[in-house]
Structure formats: C-alpha cells, structure tokens
Amino acid sequence: MNKVILVLSDALRFDVAKDNMGFLGHLVEKQQASLYKIKGELPSMSRPMYETIHTGLSSSEHGIVANSIVRLSNKPNIFQAVKKAGKVTAAAAYYWYSELYNRAPYNPIDDKETDDESLNIQHGRFYTEDEYPDIELINSAAHLVRKYAPDYLLLHPMGMDYHGETYGSDTKEYRNHAVYQDSKLAPFLLEWRELGYTVFVTGDHGINKDGAHGGSALEQRTVPFFVIQPSAKGRGEVDETVSHLQVAPTILNLLEIPIPETMKQKPLSLR
Ligand SMILES: [Zn+2]
After folding, report:
1. What is the distance in A from the centroid of ligand 1 to the CA of 11?
2. pLDDT band for position 270 (cuts 50, 70, 90)
3. Span 55-60, mean pLDDT?
4. Ligand 1 centre and the CA of 267: distance in Å?
5. For labeling, which of 54, 150, 223, 256 is most exposed (least CB within 10 Å)?
6. Structurally, how many domains does the chain consist of?
7. Is residue 93 part of a domain?
8. 262 domain-assigned
C-alpha cells in the first residue's frame, strides 16, 4: 500500500537546494532519487501556493490570491480526498494550513495540536512563529509517522523562508540553512523510505537577494521537486520542468485515490 510524505520547505529555491543539500544530492547522483525542476505558479506567495499545491488549481481558480485571505479551502484538495477515502492524514505545518483545511481563523490554543478523525488534517501539529526551529517540527512529523502511520503527511518547515526574508537569498545564512535542513532530514528520509513511503521534497516559491518573493522572476518561482521512492530507484536529475499543478494529482494517483475533476493536470509518471 502506497503512502506519501510531502516535505514542503517554505522558500526553498531550486539552485540553492541543488548546490547545498548534499544528502538529497547523493540520492540523485546514485539514481536513488529523481530531481525535477518546478516553474512555480504565481503569485510566488505562501498561502496562494499552499492552496495551489493541495488543490492542483491556479490562484485565480481557487481564489486564495493573497496571504491576507483567511478562510477554509472550498475546492477539492489532497487532505479532503485522502480522508474521504478512509485513509489517515497528518501535518506538521504552519498554522495557515490549519486555516485552509481544518478551521479558520486559527485558535492557537484549541487548534495547535489536533487528533480528530472528523477533520481534513486529522493529526495536526501547527506553529505560528516563523522562527520556530525546523528540527522541532521535523521531530513532530517523525513522531506522527511512527505513532499514526498516516497515508499522507505534510511536513512544512519555515526555516528557509525565515532566513531568506531576514538576510536575503545571497547570504551564508540562507545557504547554510539548506545544508542544515538536508542534514536534519537525511536520517528520516531513509527511515520513511524503509517504511514504504514515497517522499517528495519541494518548495512553495523561491526568494530573491532582497529577501522578497511574490513576483515572476525565476529566482522567486523556481523550486526543486525531489522524488524518493521505496524502491530506492530514481532517474537522477531529470531535464524536465514540471508544474505545481501536477503535485496534487501525482500524490492522489500514488495513493490510488480517484483524482477530482478539478485537478486537470496529468500526474507525474513515477515508474
Ligand atoms: Zn512561503
């Protein structure tokens, strides 16, 4: 039975990931993983892209066109489809995810830790501070995997975005954080692969040297899409640009869940 973990590293740029994430690079180099390039949807902003990645719809189609729009998603999405299929969902993520798929607005006391099968994100561990340490969040996600064996888990660390917005992308702080994230993820990538998970590592948008994103420049929208499969076989670096719009149908396809009609892009073929 297929299970999926999506590591959505906020503001992880393609070039910085490729140059600085050495364990992921090792898996790609040894053909144990595949690396695609994603030309991100627009605007290259967080909340619109969270919804785009989870619905397979562009911002003007799903309506979350700015970070300031605080409401539940009203389109078919990954969490809803997985739950509807009787499977288990989980997330260790920024609180905007709770607002999109569980409840809006977010209540930091009642919504922070949720274990409720009636919610779209059944097992949620949420945070509100951008500087919340990635390792604490990664450990929460790893715990959710061991305890609940979710069919779909989202791990959404904010460290790249925090360092990129604070110092700019052309800095040791931003680059070093990619090294750090890679080293903290590495042991779990192997653990999860052995448990039978397909793991994707990507970003919602990039970032520029001013510490900004939102626009259409390549550094603001180009993100990696690493694919690590339980077979430990991959295609290495693939000379192929794919779309954020393909992420949701690809995940549902792997989970053998019917793809909603609204998700029109083709799932990636991962054989
Ligand atoms: Zn973001």
Report:
1. 5
2. confident
3. 98
4. 23
5. 256
6. 1
7. yes
8. no
